[in-house]
Every structure is written in C-alpha cells, then in structure tokens.
TrEMBL record:
Enzyme Commission number(s) of this protein: 3.2.1.55
Catalytic reaction(s) noted: Hydrolysis of terminal non-reducing alpha-L-arabinofuranoside residues in alpha-L-arabinosides
Organism of origin: Kineosporia succinea
Keyword Ion transport part of the UniProt annotation: no
Keyword Lyase: no
GO molecular function, one term: alpha-L-arabinofuranosidase activity
Listed name of the protein: non-reducing end alpha-L-arabinofuranosidase
Subunit structure: Homohexamer; trimer of dimers.
Alpha-L-arabinofuranosidase C-terminal domain span: 290-496
Cross-referenced InterPro entries: Alpha-L-AF_C, ASD1_cat, GH, Glyco_hydro_b
Top-level EC class: hydrolase
Length: 503
C-alpha cells in the first residue's frame, strides 16, 4: 500500500496557534487534589504544588489551561476558594457527587499556572449564577484600581491584577446533565448580557460562548445558531467538546475519530458563518475546542469509573482511564485535525491534565508518569511551528461503520520559514498493513535533512504505561526514513502515528 502528498510552502492555512496546545484542570476526581496539588508529597514546593507534575506539564508543552470546570463550574461559588484556607467552606459538588474542600481556589491556580508557564482560561459559572457573579470574579481577577474586590485580591496576596484575557461564558449548558441546563434562547440571552457587561469593564477580553457538548446532541448546530444570534457581536469564540470512546470495540471507526472532529469543525464554522451572513457582519467567530480526548464514557455511565453514589468523598478516583497505543494514535490524529483547522480553531484543550482522562498520571505520595497519549501531544506541541500547510493525501481508504469510507493515511505539516524547518505529522489508521508514504518537498532549490523522526506504535496495541511500567510505550526513532531527490519517504506501520522534522 502506498500514499502520497506534496508539501508546498505557498499552501498555507494559518499560523500555528500556540493555544491549540491547551489543557484543562477541573475540580474533578484527583486532577487538583493529589494531581497538581499535594502539600504532603515529597516533591511539593512551598505552595503545595507537586513539582514532578509541574515538570511533566512543562514537558507536555501545554500553552493554556482551562479552569475550574467543566460540569463542576456550573455549581461553583468562586469566592469559596479565596482567603484563609482554614475559613473556606466544604461544599457538595453535585456534578461529580463528592466534597469540595476549596483548599485550592483561583489564587492558588493562577500561582500554579505561573509556575507551569501557561495562560489561564477562566470558566465562569452561568449555570446557577449570572451577570453579577461574573462581574465580581472578573473584578477580583483583573481590576487594577482600588475597588472592594481588587483590594480583597491584594489582601489575599496578589498586588497586581492577573490580567486573564480568555473567559468561557459557562460550560455545556446545552446538556440536560448540567446544573442550570438551559435552552439556547435562555443561554444566548444570558451569555450576551454577561459578555456585554464584562466588556464594559474590559473591552478587549476574549470571550467563549458555549457551543455543543458533542456533535451527537439533538440540538447540535441549532444550538450554535440560536446562541450566536444573541451573542455574535459580543463574543470571539464558540466552544466545541468531543470525546471518542473505543468501548464498543469498533476499532476501525475509533481510529477514524478525526473524521468526526473534521465534520464537527466544518459544521460549527458553517453555522457561525451563516449567522454572520444573516447579520451582515464581517466578523468571524473562532472555534474553541476546549474539551477533546479519548474517554471510555461507557465505563463512567455504568458507574465503573464514577464516584460511589453512596458516599460523599473528597477527591475520589473518577474516570482515571488508562490509555493504550491505539488511544495515543487517535490522540495524535485528533491533533492533526485541530492543526488542519488552524484558520478557525485557535484554541483547544486536551481534557484533562492530570489523572482525570489525562496524559499525566500521579499517585498520592507516589510517582507521576506519562500515559501513552502524552507523547503525540508533547511532540506535536514542540514541533508544530510557523504556518500550517495544507496537504491533500492520496492513497487507500477503508470502510467504517460510523463514518463510511475514510482515508487510511491522514496528515498535516507546518513550516517555520524563519527557522527553515518543516514538520510533518502523519497517522496510518490501517490495522493490517504498513503504508509506504512519499512526500515530494515543493520548496524549489531548497534541500532538507531529517533532524528528528518519531513513530508511536507497538506490536501490542493494548499496551499502556502504568505505575510499575511507566515507559512501556514510548515513541521510537522512525526506521528507514529518508530524504532523497527532495522526496521524504517512510514506512508507516499499521496503527501508528509519526512526526518528522526536516531542516
Ligand atoms: O472533562 C470531563 C467532563 O466532560 C467535563 O466536566 C464536562 O464539561 C464534560 O462533559
């Protein structure tokens, strides 16, 4: 089997947005407590943050972190998490059926984000709360002058405003499971009012309206249309969330999850642009794909990975999915899809960061390690630089139950003209055979050498990284990759993800 595509520096999509490499820290399960924060841990710093997890976060190449939820945020009172820790209340978290001690709140999180070197994307509660609370938390976070809440922030140790630019106007309010679930009309009005009020405080905020929780929602696309009718002028982004579940055993469809992500993005962009056309607006709404990942949701639905409903525990184990090789190949392919849409998807968050469906795992009092999915994310974040190049792979296809006929090989490339570097990211979804890939490099007289090449695959596709074998699955140097006569050639093993850097 063989596949090919041509690289041409003139076929640019858009600059790589660093925000594509975002992640997500929700007060959920053990993401915060014993994830990023564990004061009694041997690696904890003076603020109680695990330095082993911080080091892995930096290595992952995360640019942006959404906080504090998720479903959690729709019942959250932000002011519970500020001031002296001993005076903070313990509350019920109805989203995940557990107790929230509020030991970590926004001041601690911003401090952690500074250490991790990531931008904060702050999610507002528009489930049980409204315009006033959104204004209050914004005043606390960003107000420079001597107002009551800016003073309170000072009193709590932060003299300077945090300068957070990116705010989510709620979370998944299209979902009946969401505390404060709303119709598109109800939500659209509230989001527009909140956005306008926030903008009168700080005009250049970047605001994300809630889009669909998945493309399978009955309200998919009509939700976006109705919400944007209300909010078009007041927001910059519409969100998208997608989780891909391999539980039904249909590996062929699962490997083609990026086909669904492509369709999701096209549909949301088309819907947003049609609202823009109706409103005669020149403005273009961007997509914030602020929750995406592989997630065995069937295990959660059956209760196998959910909190015990008979208990109210603090930081219980919830959806600590262990990722295998196939999952990592799918994560790599979803990053290819996100990059391909860089003209419209300019922010994205792998959900979540630690323990909860996460690339990083940690044990209380124990080690932290990289899941299989860590690797394609870290390599893509490191190598994707400059402009995204459009590529059109030609090659074999296969039939899937969910998405029909899909290409076996999918790819994207980036070109950093200043550094003189090109990176190619490619996936082989075929389960049976390798595919030989040839990539003519259309850069004129310019010659290239391979500076690094990585492939993630394994003879055992169900292999994963565990506390006892944390490096069982790692990317290996790609065998037999060559550049001759300005053609890049390599063999893509079955079910594999590869990244090649040329300079
Ligand atoms: O990331 C886990 C959960 O998935 C989030 O809390 C919610 O927004 C989504 O349904």
């Amino acid at each position: 089997l063989s596949a090919s595509f041509r690289l041409d520096p003139a076929f640019t999509v858009a600059p790589v947005s660093r925000r594509t490499f975002g992640s997500f820290v929700e007060h959920m399960g053990r993401c915060v407590y014993t994830g990023i924060y564990e004061p009694a841990h041997s690696t904890a710093d003076a603020d109680g943050f695990r330095q082993d997890v911080l080091a892995l976060t930096r290595e992952l190449g995360v640019s942006l972190v959404r906080y504090p939820g998720g479903n959690f945020v729709s019942g959250y009172r932000w002011e519970d998490g500020i001031g002296p820790v001993s005076e903070r209340p313990t509350r019920r978290d109805l989203a995940w059926h557990c107790l929230e001690t509020n030991e970590v709140g926004v001041d601690e999180f911003v401090k952690w984000a500074g250490k991790a070197g990531v931008e904060v994307m702050y999610a507002l509660n528009l489930g049980t709360r409204g315009v006033q609370e959104a204004l209050d938390v914004h005043e606390y976070l960003n107000q420079p002058d001597t107002t009551r809440l800016a003073e309170l922030r000072r009193l709590n140790g932060a003299d300077k405003p945090y300068g957070i630019k990116l705010f989510c106007l709620g979370n998944e309010l299209d979902g009946p499971w969401q505390t404060g679930h709303k119709t598109a009309q109800e939500y659209g009005r509230l989001a527009a009012e909140t956005a306008r009020a926030l903008r009168s405080a700080e005009p250049d905020l970047e605001l994300v309206a809630v889009g669909s929780s998945s493309s399978a929602m009955a309200t998919f696309a009509t939700w976006e249309s109705e919400v944007l009718e209300h909010t078009y002028d007041a927001v910059d982004f519409i969100s998208a969330h997608a989780y891909y579940d391999p539980s039904d055993g249909d590996v062929g469809s699962f490997l083609a999850s990026a086909v669904d992500m492509d369709h999701f993005v096209h549909s949301v962009v088309a819907t947003a642009d049609s609202v823009g056309a109706r409103l005669k607006s020149k403005k273009r709404i961007m997509v914030s794909f602020d929750e995406w990942n592989v997630w065995r949701q069937a295990d959660f639905a059956s209760g196998a990975s959910a909190a015990n409903p008979d208990e109210w525990a603090v930081a219980p184990r919830v959806i600590e999915d262990e990722y295998d090789v196939t999952d990592a190949v799918v994560v790599g392919s979803l990053l290819i899809s996100l990059l391909r849409h860089s003209d419209r998807v300019t922010a994205a968050c792998l959900a979540q960061l630690v323990n909860v469906i996460a690339p990083i795992r940690s044990e209380a009092g124990g080690p932290a390690w990289r899941q299989t999915t860590f690797h394609p994310f870290a390599i893509t974040s490191r190598l994707a630089r400059g402009q995204v190049l459009r590529v059109e792979p030609s090659g074999p296809t296969y039939e899937t139950a969910k998405y029909g006929d899909v290409p076996m090989v999918d790819a994207v490339a980036t070109h950093d003209a200043e550094a003189g570097e090109v990176s190619v990211f490619v996936v082989n979804r075929n389960q049976g055979e390798p595919v030989t890939l040839s990539v003519p490099l259309g850069f004129g007289a310019r010659t290239f050498e391979i500076t690094e090449a990585w492939t993630l695959t394994d003879g055992d596709l169900s292999a994963s990284n565990t506390v006892d074998a944390p490096d069982r699955v790692v990317p290996v140097a790609t065998e037999g990759v060559t550049v001759e006569d300005e053609i890049l050639r390599l063999e893509l093993p079955p079910v594999s993800w590869s990244a090649i850097r040329l300079a």
